[in-house]
Every structure is written in C-alpha cells, then in structure tokens.
Amino acid sequence: MSTLEIFFLALIQGLTEFLPISSSAHLLLPSQLFGWQEQGIAFDVAVHVGSLMAVCIYFRKEIGDMLIAWYATLTPNKEDDAALTYDQKLNGKLAWWILFATIPAGLFGLFGKDFIEAHLRTALVMAITTLIFGVFLGYADIKAKQNVSLEKLGFKGAFLIGLAQAIALIPGTSRSGITMTMGLMLGLTKENAARFSFLLSIPAIAMAGSYLTAKLIFDVEPVDWYAMAMGSVLAFISAYACIHYFLIIVARMGMMPFVIYRLLLGAGLLWFVLA
C-alpha cells in the first residue's frame, strides 16, 4: 500500500466507524473509483485497534465507572447496595445492558459472516442499504418522541438495539446509524442514543478486531508494519475527533445532516452500479 492509500483509508475508517453513514460503503469507493486493492487483514486489524483506542479513551470515565459498578453487581450485599448512589446503580445496569446487547451481533457474526462476505458484500447491496437505513434514520430523527430517559431503556430496549447492531453486519447498513435509529425509536434523546451506540461499539469492535487478529495469525502473507502503525495512529486521531464533534453536531442539528449525506451517497452508489 502506498502512503496515500494508507492515509486515505485510515482516515475513512476512523471517521465513518462512528458516524451513521456506513464505513463499508466508503471503503468500497476507493477500490471502485481508483482501482485500489483490498487493504488486507493486517491493515484492518490496525485501524480497528486505532478506533477501539479512540472510543475507550474518549469515554474512559464512563467505562471506569461502569466497570466498578458492574463488579459491585457480581457480589451483591444489602448494605453495599443501599450505599450505592443513583448514578452507580445506573452504571451497573448500563454495563449489563451493553453486554446483553452485544450477544445478537456475536451470534449473527459467528453463523452468518461467511454468507454475508460471499453474497452481500456488493456495491448494489451497499447502495440499497445506505438509502433504506438512511430513510429510517431520518424518520426516527423527525418522528421519534425522544422523551425516555436512559435508565428506562431496560434489558428489552438494550436487546432491541443489539438486534439492530446485528443487522448492521450487512454492508452499507452502518452499525452506528442503525443502533442510533433504534435508540431514537425507543424514545432516547439524540445524545443518549449516540452515547449508548458508542459504548456498545466497544465490545463490537473488540470482537471484530479479535476475529481479524485470529485470521492474521494464520495468514501467510507478509505484514506491512509501516502501514499498520500509520493506519492505527491515523484511525485513532480521526475516530477521536469524530466522536467529539459528532456529539456537538447532534446536540445542535440532530441527525438530518447525516441523513441527507447518506441519501446522496446511496444515490451516487446506485447510479455508479446501474450506469
């Protein structure tokens, strides 16, 4: 891979991993437009590591609080439970909800990934899913009541968001996009839907990275350590900036800028396929 390819693909991965606009559709474009080869497993591992580090560092306080609160739920004690604050109890619930919501994607990925890679990783599928789920996001942004507090999400709501995340394994859907859409439809505010989606991405990215790492271990192709290092750093920087500014944009303008972008992207991909 050339330095230009590394720079471009790592930035795309970092930016689109957390924006509701589909990373797979964007990573497809360079290969279709410029004839670039697939970036390979090693590079995929590197950019996943960079993205994972970004979300973990950005939400380090929330993650630390949830881990402590989650551990407290494993050793229940009436006196200790009574001493917990409201926020600590909520953090413990959030940790369990995120773990519970991760199960559908793990199972769907385990049993359906080969079929998806063989039959659904096409420009036409990505164009259609980019358009369809873009419309759903726009509908949720406009019509959803957004009056349910995060503590009211419950296991049922978390599981529904987890099911949505499993569907995102279909290329072009956008993991962050569909989980935020489901969060909005369940009544969460835009900020809470986005935050829950970002926190839910941690085990999802970790699972994807672990899967790719396992494949890399048994891959006989040489590893480009320069590409891996540069890709990881660039993905980290772009992902961290993306999370920060996305939360600001959502609070001020909602999801509509990303809905419009998705519709334009989907229409462009559809035109490219059918032209």
UniProtKB/TrEMBL annotation:
Catalytic activities: di-trans,octa-cis-undecaprenyl diphosphate + H2O = di-trans,octa-cis-undecaprenyl phosphate + phosphate + H(+)
Keyword Oxidoreductase in annotation: no
EC number(s) stated in the UniProt entry for this protein: 3.6.1.27
Cell location: Cell membrane
Chief location: membrane
UniProt key word Transmembrane helix: yes
Further details from the record: Bacitracin is thought to be involved in the inhibition of peptidoglycan synthesis by sequestering undecaprenyl diphosphate, thereby reducing the pool of lipid carrier available.
PANTHER family: UNDECAPRENYL-DIPHOSPHATASE (PTHR30622)
Sequence similarity: Belongs to the UppP family.
Stated role: Catalyzes the dephosphorylation of undecaprenyl diphosphate (UPP). Confers resistance to bacitracin.
Stated name of the protein: Undecaprenyl-diphosphatase
Species in which this protein is naturally found: Thalassotalea insulae
